[in-house]
Amino acid sequence: MSVSSGLSVILQIWDEVGETDDERDKMLLQIDQECLDVYKRKVDHAVKSRAHLLQALADAKVELSRLLSALGEKTYVGVPEKTSGTIKEQLAAIAPTLEKLWKQKDDRIKDFFDVQSQIQKISSEIAGDSEQVESLIVDESDLSVKKLDEFHVQLQELQKEKSDRLHKVLDLVSTVHDLCAVLGMDFFSTVTEVHPSLDDSTGVQSKSISNDTLSNLANTVLVLKEDKKQRLLKLQELATQLIDLWNLMDTPEEERSLFDHVTCNISASVDEVAIPGALALDLIEQAEVEVERLDQLKASKMKEISFKRQAELEDIYARAHVEIDTEAAREKIMGLIDSGNVDPAELLADMDNQIVNAKEEAHSRKEILEKVEKWMAACEEESWLEDYNRDDNRYNASRGAHLNLKRAEKARILVNKIPALVDSLVAKTRAWEQERDTTFTYDGVPLLAMLDEYMMLRHDREEEKRRLRDQKKFHEQMSKDPEVFGSTPSPVRPLGPKKVTGPRANGSANGPASRRLSLNSHQNGSKSTSKDGKRDARLSAPVNYVAMTKDDAASHISGTEPIPSTP
């Protein structure tokens, strides 16, 4: 319905009702006023609506600028460059861009939250207060990609640090595990005492990587290494004691092998010991018990062990023909052991040194003793040859005669070498004595004196043979031409088959008892034993070596039986 038609209707109604003109004017004036009021309200509403739209447009532009600034976008595709068109058109143009930027902002906030959450979490793990993580608030004033990248770099650095720390933790935990295995300790209780998360049942990423954990783990490793070092030193000391005691008591290999797990590390360094249980306390206690047992056993076996060493020492000297007072040595050993004033190890070490010195002396005497053996053998052959030459039937065709003949030929060659052999022996003996400033004795008798007496007696023997030959010639001439020599000679005392038999233990029957030397007829260096079981310190000599005085030789001059000379 239009205004004019509405006015017509109202006038028609007033005509029918019979309204007066005043009433009509009043009613029309009221209608006009009401229309004006409606118009005015409409205009006010339109003004307000326009103002609201303008404010919305301004706000949208500010929001757009703020979003672009927060997102770090200097330019953005879709932002209207011109401000033409109605307000609603401008709002409609900017609205899609705002929607996209709001969505981008939400996504960016989520990215920032994720990165910063990880940074906060790792930082808390490093700081050791992961259970007290504060609520995270993202700063929306700067949501630029640059800022996000900075957080990503920070996160990567923290992730690398976490990885490095985790590797350190795992390495330290592994070291603790190995040390606990070697020391025989409980790994679980040791490592969880540092931090509960270090148990093997806990995931790798869940293990504590804080400074305190790393420090405590490092300290634990140091303590365990020091404990390992001290235990190894203790075990090596026990192993040394075991070996010394075994060697002391000549313990068999079967018994020693029971403690191979102890002695195998006697020279090992700390890092070389890696066998589980190698340094366990019970193993060390077992070794201590064994050392204590052997110490107690050592006291009861000391005499047996010491006398065994003494017997070895005596045997070395016997084979080297060096005279020692064995009874005094054994009595001294008994006295030291019974007194308890000497350490058994020191006593045996001293005896071992004596054995070493004895072996060195025996070695220095070896060459001279070999020549003495040759000299003694040659003297024996000389004695046999003299007996052989006295045998009138030596050329008979009896059994073995050709063998004796060959032996005699060899014996003559050997006997002819005796002077040179004695000269060489004298020279070497004198050189030995000068070098060591001591006398070379053979079973207690000076060897040079022995050789000098032998050469003197050999010379006397040769002189005796020469006189006997001359006497024989003299008697032969007398028997052939007695008138030349006067009356018939008196009977000559028979000359018995006396042979030069070498130095006897107490002197020969027809010579003085002084300076009688005895060389053992056994040429192997064995000890001679008297009736009371003691070793005879005298030498046993070649059987043809006898001390003969000049009176003995003169007594044979009147003899009639010739003595064959040694070729």
TrEMBL record:
Disordered: annotated span: 463-545
Keyword entries, A-Z: Cytoplasm, Cytoskeleton, Microtubule
Cell compartment(s), UniProt: Cytoplasm, Cytoskeleton
Transmembrane residue ranges: none
Kinase in keyword set: no
InterPro entries to which the protein is assigned, alphabetical: MAP65_Ase1_PRC1
Location (main, coarse): cytoplasm
Biased segments, Polar residues type: 507-528
Keyword presence, tRNA processing: no
Bias (Basic and acidic residues) ranges: 463-483, 529-538
UniProt-listed PANTHER family: FASCETTO-RELATED (PTHR19321:SF41), PROTEIN REGULATOR OF CYTOKINESIS 1 PRC1-RELATED (PTHR19321)
Family the entry assigns: Belongs to the MAP65/ASE1 family.
UniProt-recorded name of the protein: Microtubule-associated protein MAP65-1a
Species the sequence originates in: Solanum tuberosum (Potato)
